[in-house]
Amino acid sequence: QVHLQESGPGLVKPSQTLSLTCSVSGGSMSSGSYYWSWIRQPAGKGLEWIGRIYSRGTTNYNPSLKSRVTMSLDTPKNQFSLKLDSVTAADTAVYYCARDIDSYGSGSNLYWGQGTLVTVSS
Amino acid sequence: QSALTQPASVSGSPGQSITISCTGTGSDVGSYNLVSWYQQNPGKAPKLMIYELTKWPSGVSNRFSGSKSGNTASLTISGLQAEDEADYYCCSFAAGGTFVFGTGTKVTVL
Lengths: 122, 110
What we know:
The complex is a heterodimer. By secondary structure, chain A is mostly beta strands. Chain A is 0% helix and 50% strand. In chain A, the strands form two sheets. In chain A, strands 2, 4, 5, 6, 9, 10 and 11 form a seven-stranded mixed beta sheet that branches. Chains A and B meet through strand 5 and strand 10 of A and strand 3, strand 7 and strand 8 of B.
């Protein structure tokens, strides 16, 4: 059973970079080709798709965040990461990492981390 | 890229059927059968209920079913149960290789 766990600072200052890591267990990221995604949810609001990275490194980002987002893989460590530059209070949210149900890339995220709250505040 | 439109709330009595709509555009829902539906309980991560418009992940009840007409996808919950009370989100593939979520629907079991 695949298990995902987000980690990173819970508090980030405005204008700084938000950095999160998702650790994958229950299987090697190098076995199989999957899409690894980041999704966020401000308190009391809906889900927002941030982007995804394919096992071979190609990325797709939300157009509204594209200029500030970078995703990367660290396959030997079984981790993938999210960086969001120049954060503001509007970036305060619970951030989830997730993985598709299969390698087709339909955006069907079966496996999710528990989520981590990131607050942007000075 | 605007969020897909869902009704804010839908309610029904136990045993009834309810349908949640998810309206997009010809650039997302209307052009692709890559619509998924998620159930989210308070404080929990979303749970995949339907994927690729009509498919069930292992372990998900077939009381949940998906469909689409034009630019609107729908999730139907048959035989409504108290445990179905939750927030539901649709998600669609969109032009450019991105994805967009719906605004979310709170389902209440009366």
